[in-house]
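Hi R.,

Here's the chain you asked about this morning:
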Amino acid sequence: MIKYDDNVQVTCVDNNQTVTAEILEFKPQMILTISLDRKIKLVLKYVTKSDEYHGELYGRTFISKGPKGRHYSVGRG
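And the predicted structure, written out as tokens:
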């Protein structure tokens, strides 16, 4: 099983600025919905060719590799 981080690094392509954003929804290789500064909601869609999530907001392009995942096993307790 994989557990994903609650935060993700997102880069604005237009000014090359990277920020940490809070993840609202994540479906691997499909969609990544984030909150910037707990004020702005941004939806990024997975692009297979670049293996990244891309989205646009206010005429700016944002990209992310997605959250880091950690593998763990669920055993008998």
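The beta strands are 2-4, 7-12, 17-27, 31-36, 40-47, 52-57, 60-64, 69-71.

Let me know if you need anything else.
M.
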